[in-house]
Amino acid sequence: MSKLWDKGVQLNQQIEAFTVGDDYQLDQKLVVYDCQASKAHAGVLEKAGLLTSDEARQLKLELDVIIDLQEKGEFEITREQEDCHTAIEAHLIQKLGDVGKKIHTARSRNDQVLTALRLYYRDSLSEIEGLRTHLVESIGTFVKTYGDIPYPGYTHMQKAMPSSFALWGSAFADSMADNGILLSAVSKIVDQSPLGTAAGYGVPLELDRESSASELGFARVQENPIYAQNSRGKFEVLLIHLLSQITGDLNKIASDLILFNMSEFGFVKLPAAFCTGSSIMPQKQNPDVLELLRAKHHVVTACEFQVSSIVSNLISGYNRDLQLTKEPVMKAINITWECLEIAILLFRELGVNKDKCEAAMTEELYATEQAYELVKSGVPFRDAYQQVAQKISGKQ
After folding, report:
1. Are 83 and 163 in contact (CB under 8 A)?
2. Is the domain covering 13-101 a CATH 3.30.565.10 domain?
3. Using CB atoms within 10 A as the burial measure, which of 187, 239, 328, 361 is most buried?
4. DSSP state of 206
5. Side-chain half-sphere exposure of 215, counting CA atoms within 13 A
6. How far, rounded to the nearest angstrom, does the alpha carbon of residue 389 sit from its chain's CA centroid?
C-alpha cells in the first residue's frame, strides 16, 4: 500500500512531488504521537465492538514496535507514502494483515494529523515552559551577582536616568513571567482532543471520544467536528504568537547586549568562547551569537505571518492549504527552543565591567533627581524643571 486514498489510478509523478512536498520528512516528528493516538483509537474501536479484544491487543503491540523503531531511527516514511499516517498503517497491514486494515475505521487522516499535532504541541509547550522557567532563574542569578552595579538608563538612545543591572534584568524576568501566563492560556486552548471528528463531519458510529481523550491526557474533547478542522491554523497562529512574544524579549536582550558590549560602552563582556572573528581583521571579536539571537525573532514572526496568511479565506472544513502550516510551526518551535537555551547560557556566562559602568554615570543622569529635590522643598515641578535645565545649560 502506497497511499491511503489509492483507487488504482497512477498519479502523475510531478503532481505527486508537488502535493507531497516535505511532509514525509517533517512527519518523522509525529510518528510516536500518531502511534499513541492510534493505540487510543484502537481502544475506542474495541469498546464500540468494531475490534475484538485480541485485535486491539495485536494493534497496540505492533504500534509499540513502531514507536521503538522510530526511537532507534529505523522507521522509514517514503515520499510515495506521503506522511507518517500512511507509513504506520502500511506497517500494520504488512505485519497483521486484515487486522491492520481495521485501524482506520471511524477516522480520517484529517483528525489523525490534528491529534498527532496537538500531542506534539503539548509536549513542545511543556519543554518551552521548562526553558522559560530556567531562563528566569538564570536572570535571577545574574541579578544577584551584578544587580547592584549602576549604569546609565537611556531614552531616545541618549542618557536619561540612572539604571542598574537589577532593574534591567528584572524587566526581562517580569516579561517572561507574563509570557508564562500567555503560554498557559495557549496550552489550555490546544489541550482538547479532535480524535473521532474524522474529516470534519463526524462518523455514523457511536464512539467513546472521552475515553480516547482521557487516555491521551487531553483535558477535554473538541466537540464540534467542523471547528476541529477550522481550529487548525487558528491554534497554530496562537502558538507561534506566543513564541514570538518569547523571542521578542530575547531580541531586545540581544539588542541591549550588543550595544553594551561595544568598546565605546564596555558595560558587559561576552566570553571570548562566545565570539567569532573576522577573516581579514585580526583584532575582531564579533557578537554573532547576539546578532543571530536578535534576528531569529524575525524568522519566528515570519512563520506567524505565513501561517495566518495561509489559513485566511479558506472555507470551513479541511483544505489542503493547511498542509503548508506544518513546517513553519515546527520551525518556530525549534527556533524558540534553541534561542531560549542560548539565552540561558548567555546569562550564566555574561560578565559586567563595574568600572566602565560607574564611569558612565555622568552628572546629567541625576538632573531629574535634582529637580525632585527642589520639589520636596516646595518648588513647583515646572519651576524646578526649568531651574535644573538652566543650570545644566550653563555648564555646557
Report:
1. no
2. no
3. 239
4. -
5. 18
6. 48
- Separation of alpha carbons 45 and 104, rounded Å: 10
Cite the residue boundaries of each domain of the chain with CATH code 1.10.275.10. Answer: 13-101
Ranges for all domains in the chain classified under CATH 1.20.200.10: 109-359
DSSP state of 51: S
**Predicted pLDDT at 6:** 62
Helix boundaries (H) for the chain: 13-20, 23-26, 31-47, 53-71, 84-96, 98-101, 109-146, 165-190, 209-215, 225-261, 288-311, 326-349, 354-359, 367-376, 381-395
The residues pairing with 163 across neighbouring beta strands, listed in sequence order, are: 151
Question: Which of the residues are catalytic?
Answer: 156, 278
Closest CA to 350 of 260, 216, 232: 260
Give the three cell numbers for residue 28.
518523522
Greatest Cα-to-Cα distance within the chain, rounded to the nearest angstrom: 94
Strand, coil or helix: what is 41? helix
Res 1 pLDDT > 70: no
- What does the alpha-carbon distance between residue 377 and residue 367 come to, in Å, rounded to a whole number? 16
Please answer whether residues 84 and 112 qualify as being in contact, where contact means their C-beta atoms are separated by less than 8 angstroms: no
Asked if residue 121 lies in contact with residue 239, where contact means CB atoms within 8 angstroms, the answer is: yes
Q: Could you give the 3-state DSSP secondary structure of residue 200?
A: coil
Per the CB < 8 A criterion, the answer to whether 85 and 28 are in contact is: no
Q: State how far the alpha carbon of 88 is from the alpha carbons of 21, 64, 73, 346, in Å.
A: 19, 11, 14, 42
- Say if residue 396's pLDDT is above 60: no
Which SS3 state, helix, strand or coil, does residue 268 take? strand
* Cα separation, 83 vs 196, whole angstroms: 19
Strand partners, 243: none
* Residue 377 vs residue 277, higher pLDDT: 377
Helix (H, G, I), strand (E, B) or coil at 50: coil
d(CA 183, CA 331): 18
Q: What is the pLDDT, as a whole number, of residue 9?
A: 67
pTM of this structure? 0.92
Name the packing angle between helices 109-146 and 165-190 (round to 10°): 160
